Amino acid sequence: MTSRITSAFLTLVAISAAGAGGYYAGSNGFRVEGLALSAPATSVAAPAASGPVIYYRDPDGKPFYAATLRKTADGRDFLPVLASEDVSFDGQGSTSGNPSAPDPNPAVTSENKKVLYYRNPMGLPDTSPVPKKDSMGMDYLPVYDGEDNDDGKLKISLGKMQRTGVRSEQAASRVLTVPVRAPGTIQLDERRISVVATRSDAFIEKVADITTGDKVKKGQDLVRLYSPDIATAGAQYVTELSDPVRRSVLGGARQRLENLGAHADLIKEIERTRKVPLAVPWTASQDGVVLERNAIDGMKAAPGDVLFRIADVSTVWALADIADRDLPRIATGQNVTVRVRGFDDRTFAGKVSQIYPQVNKETRTTRVRVELANRDGILRPDMYVEAEIATGSEQPVTSVPASAVLDSGMRQIVLIDKGEGRFEPRVVTVGRRNTDYVEIREGITPGDDVVVAANFLIDAESNLKAALRGLAPDTPKPDQPGEKPL
């Protein structure tokens, strides 16, 4: 009973101390207010450190470092720090908790590279010849020999490349079309509109059962009318058909019928029956849709009065308004994709057939005409449309993804992937652009690997290292006597 009470008491003391933050991990268990609670030994011995000594640190963990062996104020030696124990953001050392883990980029490990200096971890223009910490307690980052070169190339560890998502793609020859988008409207083809009218005075006896919007066929009867002039010319033509002598003396009656607008079927009927009908049919001159009906039963029509207006809507125009800045890229024959508002699931293909010579002085736009097939009659006059004109040459050009170009405003740069974490900035001359690719006129050739993802991070790293090179202390060379080592 006493042992159970003692055990419960110790447990209660341990829980209370933990809640108040009064416990800490010891080497053999948990120590609570002078009481040691043994814990099972489950820790695994850390792998032994390896590599050469790169610097020395204070034995008490204070932020004091030295490039050579030194002692504390009370005479104790500074502790050596081996290469595998150094902390680095480039994937070297023990940042992952395993000091002996292999470096993802052995080409830049501290075992075969010399530390030139240490730079500020926040990118500030501050370097140190020996390890140190910044004001927030962060370790300065080592810069190894070979990383700080002046050949214009930048080296990035493979570990950092994987973390930042660096990705490359080959430059290639592509047909680069640059779309120009412009609003517009649907209009009727002016060449496919006709009117039905008489060429002489006429009286409308009967109008066919046709209204505005109806479809008609060529030769279909629209009205029956009486025309004194047509009746007179028809009677003269019948006389000439019956008397060859009078035909040779008078003649021309058939021509007068044609001049008055009598259609061929009416003339053939007169020739067959040798009679002139009192009311003659007036027919449609083409297939199409009736846009306008002015004929009324019993009305008198003067010469030239429009009885019907008919339009063939199988082909229509899309008139797009092109802004001044885009007009130089437009040419006849270019492919056009037209989208109609309200029919988002359909597109209509056509070509630029006409660039109008006038510029609207109010909107600073120029009209471009596109012919579109309209077999199902969906496209109606005055509909709003959006036209996308594929400008550009059909010849392939060297191009890269748009994300590969770093534009500073004064110049454009792409990063060439040289492999093994090496990158070279290259100044290029760009040309046409579309939503996905950019034409490169000078600077690279098809087949060059260019960075298309995380390139701005590499560019920032390059700018930082370039700035640090100007602030770093001079590194002594073996063949340059008189210079002091770090």
Automatic annotation (TrEMBL):
Residues 89-109 are annotated as: Disordered. GO terms for biological process: copper ion export; plasma membrane copper ion transport. Residues 193-311 form the CusB-like barrel-sandwich hybrid domain. Residues 399-458 form the CzcB-like C-terminal circularly permuted SH3-like domain. Keywords: Ion transport, Signal, Transport. Residues 315-391 form the CusB-like beta-barrel domain. It holds the Pfam family CzcB_C. It comes from the Bacteria. PANTHER family: CATION EFFLUX SYSTEM PROTEIN CUSB. Belongs to the membrane fusion protein (MFP) (TC 8.A.1) family. This is Efflux transporter periplasmic adaptor subunit. It comes from Phyllobacterium brassicacearum. The lineage of its organism: Bacteria, Pseudomonadati, Pseudomonadota, Alphaproteobacteria, Hyphomicrobiales.
